[in-house]
Amino acid sequence: MSTSEDTPPSLYAAREPIFPKRVSGRFRNLKWAIMVVTLGIYYVTPWLRWDRGPQLPDQAVLVDLANRRFFFFWIEIWPHEFYFVAGLLIMAGIGLFLFTSALGRVWCGYTCPQTVWTDLFILVERWIEGDRNARIRLLRQKWDARKVRLRVTKWITWMLIAVATGGAWVFYFSDAPTLFVDLFTLNAHAAAYTTVALLTATTFVFGGLMREQVCIYACPWPRIQAAMMDEDTITVAYRDWRGEPRGKHRKGAARAAATTHAADKTAFAMPEDEVQTQQQLGDCIDCNACVNVCPMGIDIRDGQQLECITCALCIDACDEVMDKIGKPRGLIGYMALTDEEHERSGQPRIPVWKHIFRARTIMYTALWAAVGVGLVVALFIRPDLSITVAPVRNPVYVTMSDGTIRNTYDVRLRNKYGEDRPYAISITSPAALVVEAEGSEDGTVIVPADSTKLQRVYVMAPPDSPAASRAVTDLTIWVQDTVSNERASKDTVFNGRAE
Amino acid sequence: MSKTHKDPHDKQDVQTTGHSWDGIEEYDNPMPRWWLYTFYATIVWGIGYTIAFPAWPMISGATSGLLGFSTRGDLVADLERAQAANAEINERLVSVALTEIPDDPDLNQYAVNKGAAVYRTFCSQCHGSGAAGVQAAGYPNLLDDDWLWGGTVEEIHYTISHGIRNEDDIDARYSEMPVYGEILSDEEIEQVAHYAYTLNGRDPLDADMAAAGEETFLYECAACHMEDGSGNSDLGAPALNDAIWLYGGDYETIVETVTYSRYGVMPPWQNRLTEADIAAVATYVHQLGGGVTEE
Ligand code: SF4
Ligand code: SF4
After folding, report:
1. Same domain, A316 and A410
2. Residue A192 lies in a domain
3. Pocket test for ligand 1, best of A108, A229, A296 (most atoms within 8 A of CB)
4. What span, in angstroms and rounded, lies between the C-alpha atoms of A192 and A176?
């Protein structure tokens, strides 16, 4: 970029292609493992089965939008229990806060779908087009048959992965085996195809073409993350006090340096100043290994940058180089800002656990655990049978021809079982009231499996009884599942003529 | 590669906006080129959109767009789709006997829901959104078990189809209470009102007057309202011996009713609603809590 006064800076810039080089090491291995696990979970989960009885779906994890149910193994969530989902999202959020404040952008570096799929796409790219140098050459060369073949193979493979990704997503929302057949026989719902197409397109574009651009320009999370980090957050950093001044190490330089002050200065053909330089050089041999492997295309030696997703690949790359030149590992490593200060001034590093256990992380952990415990408790105490009662207020009461005063209540009954259940409706009240369920002779109503039923319930006060003329009488409506004998009740009131 | 990336420790390379807040400066990095292209793409999309869809305002109205889309047309199509989807169950609704609808839970549910919608649209203006009627205006309460013209689902169906005392439907329910102000003396009217007041078991306001009214009642009123005041739903003659009074059961209102008579009307609905609508709303009203079932 030009900074001279007379040429105004360009308003936009082309993307610099990035060719991450293959690297191996402990963090790379960890990332491979995480990739296998996360992709495995994503692709396999919809195919797991879970028996819930004949009338309920047998898919272990299913978001049934049409029937407004969420199934997760033995847990079934109804719309009125959406707070479970909200709670899980809050936990996920606080969990991210916790990890970010302790370990910086670990989410970005290891588990973000953007990172995982980009990693996969780069892997494919490397298999087909070769490693970094081969890819750079391929980009620069003219289009010939080989380039076309390689590019087309790569795009097709990417596309297959993208289709599989988009395809797997829809299985979470419908019975996977059925939908799988339907998708191929063109019998699936248009929404399924649209979703697959959209996710295929985003996977292909984000993983294959945009990659780091998503993280740098589109994703809001890095901006938010900054708020959770402080000088104790562990991130990837370059020990410039050890590495600088950087420069190419010469073979024998160390030996030359050792003998510089020896009497026989002519034994080596190295000029004095060169020996001097070699002596002062830091551990960084300026091999650019760390830059070449970086999926974000940055140089960690420039210090912490907003592009860095702390994927730690540069650590692996640098460690490999240090091993080769016989220097200690860790020229690039995980450390906190305070470590940097300490190391510069020659003090010992603060132990890692002290970085991690600090007020901020303990607070996040406490919050996270509190929400978690709350959810688990709520899960265990939530009743299988629950009702809601809405007294009809339009009109408040009806006078029947014999003078009976009748109130009406809309009672919503929920049957969470996988079979039809008979529910008996009754009331308790200090006054002598009579109950009747609309459309039922004995006060028992059948609620179909896994559904709710809005049942109109009439409560009557005999003519001239106290409840008929009193303004309000207490009343409790009871519902009993006649199979399991579970009971649920709701308090409400009976309105009389209020004379 | 590293040369194009800015070195935060060496500000020389970095273009800033020149703004500075508390020493914090804002980088003025170029935006990515693809972003610019997305921006152009949205412009192209926008132009295409205004060609395909109604957009440009003209003197009267707007361009209609190549796709011929309109929200009204969309709504019409939606309604037609809903009609088509319901065609089968509507067919069932009119072919099944009204009394047998409750035996089919799905059909009954459909009839009640559909009936509720029809009721809210066409009936609630007079009978009230809660179906409690309006006593002062003589719009009957449909929630109770007192029916002027019969409370079986068939009778309700007939009343809805043909209406009451209207001139549009030759089969409309019809009856007319004489205007007794022109037939009886004021005293006779007062006596018969006192008598009618006691028919549902209330203590007479004036025992002598009530006793004196009995003869007039039997002579003038019992033909329709029956000797015991139980009414006759074939004639739309209300029961006078129960707790429900269409226009009010206090002495003054009874005198007013006897003197001037009442003439409540209801329009026929068979020409305005479909057969399925009427079957549905009859089912709905019948199940509001007062419907009568013939054994
Ligand atoms: S910046 Fe956003 S998209 Fe990129 S790795 Fe982090 S969370 Fe994922
Ligand atoms: S600088 Fe290192 S840790 Fe950061 S993104 Fe690049 S390779 Fe990953």
Report:
1. no
2. yes
3. A108
4. 12
Ligand closest in space to the Cα of A111: 1
Q: What is the pLDDT of residues A330-358, one digit of tens each?
A: 999 999 989 888 988 888 888 889 899 99
Residue ranges and CATH numbers for the domains of chain B are: 99-174+268-295 (1.10.760.10), 180-260 (1.10.760.10)
Same domain, A467 and A336: no
Model pTM score: 0.77
A8 lies in some domain: no
Asked if residue A453 lies in contact with residue A412, where contact means CB atoms within 8 angstroms, the answer is yes
Same domain (yes/no): A189, A328: no
CA of A233 to the centre of ligand 1 (A): 18
Spacing of C-alpha B110 from chain mean position: 16
Name the residue range of residue A313's domain: 235-360
Contacts of B231 in chain A (CB under 8 A): none
Per 3-state DSSP, chain B is made up of helix, strand and coil in percentages (nearest 5) of 50, 5, 45
A262 vs chain B: nearest CA distance in angstroms?
Answer: 40
Say yes or no to pLDDT of A6 above 70.
no
Nearest to B8 among A305, A398, A400 (CB): A305
Sequence-ordered list of residues with C-beta below 8 angstroms from that of A72, at least 6 positions apart, any chain: A60, A61
Q: Tokens standing for A268?
A: 């080596």
CA–CA separation, B254 and A2 (whole Å) = 100
For the Cβ of A118 lying below 6 angstroms from any atom of ligand 2, the answer is no
pLDDT tier for residue B24 given thresholds of 50, 70 and 90: confident
Instruction: Reduce the DSSP state of residue B232 to 3 states and report it.
Output: strand
> Number of residue pairs across A and B with CB atoms under 8 Å?
109
The answer to whether the CB atoms of B1 and A291 lie below 8 A apart is yes
**Within this chain, do residues A221 and A241 fall inside the same structural domain, yes or no?**
no
CA A334 – ligand 2 centroid, Å: 11
